[in-house]
Amino acid sequence: MAQQLPVILITGGAQGIGKGIAAYFLDKGWRVVVLDQDAEAITACRQDLNNPDNLRLITTDVSRESEVVAAVDEAVRWGGRLDATVSNAGIADPDTGPIETLELAQWQRRIDVNLTGAFLMAKHTVPHLRQTRGSIVNMASTRALQSEPHSEAYAASKGGLIALTHALAMSLGPDVRANSISPGWIDVRAWQADAPARLQPLSASDHEQHPSGRVGTPADVAAMVAYLVSPEARFVTGQNFVIDGGMTRKMIYED
């Protein structure tokens, strides 16, 4: 019997960083399951990504447990196994205005999607990951480590995601490893569902403010995901990896 291809499940995978990760793993010969709440982005993703035979797209709200259960069941039936879960789904806009006017519903929605969604994905994919000694990768943010004004809900959800990750690593090891990635400025414009046909290039100053000399790309994040789910990272768990071109290590002074 032919050996089954490894299967990776990516939430929020129809655009942005998630879509870049999906494309990367398709190119590496994996079978890829993409979960996303945005039906239009799902349609665009189906048209844009290569190798449709190895791609499954499922419309899912990761904050709803019944939808997560159904999506994971469908993913495993289709793929025959599960080797990696990437919880990338999240409400990306960090600015919710002054804390005095932040509505509880706004706060709760960011916690539900960014943090509870990752919990639900872990809860329902772990039984399958145990069988393959697989991995969980949670997508946090550099805003879990440093903040801008009016970003309390977003920062709290991403900080919680890092804590959830190291708790999972302790609970699930040695069968399942869990790590997180905190991206900085990643240029996802070309990976959005509504990407224009021609993008304006980023400025030289945009790139120069990064110690690495450039703004990040989804491929930079995808490469780290690929390492973390590989056998080469079997001694790596409970860690958070900052992918930001050095920005969080840069001292900034006013002129």
TrEMBL record:
InterPro entries, per the entry: NAD(P)-bd_dom_sf, Sc_DH/Rdtase_CS, SDR_fam
Protein name according to UniProt: SDR family oxidoreductase
Gene3D superfamilies registered for this protein in UniProt: NAD(P)-binding Rossmann-like Domain
Entry superkingdom: Bacteria
Species in which this protein is naturally found: Marinobacter panjinensis
Pfam families (UniProt xref): adh_short_C2
Keywords, ordered alphabetically: Oxidoreductase
GO molecular function annotations of the record: oxidoreductase activity
